[in-house]
Amino acid sequence: MVDDQPLAQTTLASILSARSDVEHFDSADDAIEALEKLATDSYDVLLLDINSAGLSGTELVDHLRERNRPLPSIVFVTAQVEHAVAAFERHTVDYVLKPFSNESINEALDRASRRAKGERAAKLIEALPQLQKLSSPGHPMIAIKAKGRILFINPGDVVAVQAEGNYVSLQRESDSYLLRESISMVAEKLKPYGFIRIHRSALVNTSFVVEIRPYSTGKCGVRVKGGKEYAVTRGYKKNLKPLTEFRIGNGAFLAE
User: Fold this and answer.
1) What is the pLDDT of residues 174-186, one digit of tens each?
2) Pick from 151, 183, 188: which is nearest to 167 by CA?
3) Among 201, 193, 89, 99, CA closest to 140
């Protein structure tokens, strides 16, 4: 947020602090200071007063456009109504007049958020061919989306996958990632990498399995490196065939 009025900065900071979708915010007293900060840090949204000493808000936007870097979503927050046309010519998301209300700022931030998400989605679509190459059989890394980021993970490092409501947890030996994805979609993506489904809500990486344990109930479990054990339900017991070289009990092979 760029504003030379302390009261305006304080009020905007209060509004931003109350929003769960704002991870971080910063402030500048004028456009020149803002330009310096924008040279080193990236921001999704710029709340900008037009009236600024040394460099106006619209001039700041023009300077940013000259750079070969993504432009934040611009929301002008100003008392100067006469500059509205010039502002929207610069593809401004919104133009909020002072004195502003919490509601007007939040509505502007909602619009800015929708635009930022749309632009990120467009960039993902544009980058998709390259991401598909990285996740092809010739490349061991798979690309996944998590919290707005693209992560590249080696499937060989994933021990197991478990469904958690509308999400799945990719569990590695040292950490895990929570993705908004169905277990069925993840199972299909990981099938070429030696993963088998042992439960309607769980997959395991066969390279991590060290033991198959029969239960008195007729079901069984698989133990992975590190000691964790996962139950195998009857409907998925047949998927253990790739692991039948592991002998269990009295030395007999696991049979259906």
Assistant:
1) 888 888 788 998 8
2) 183
3) 193
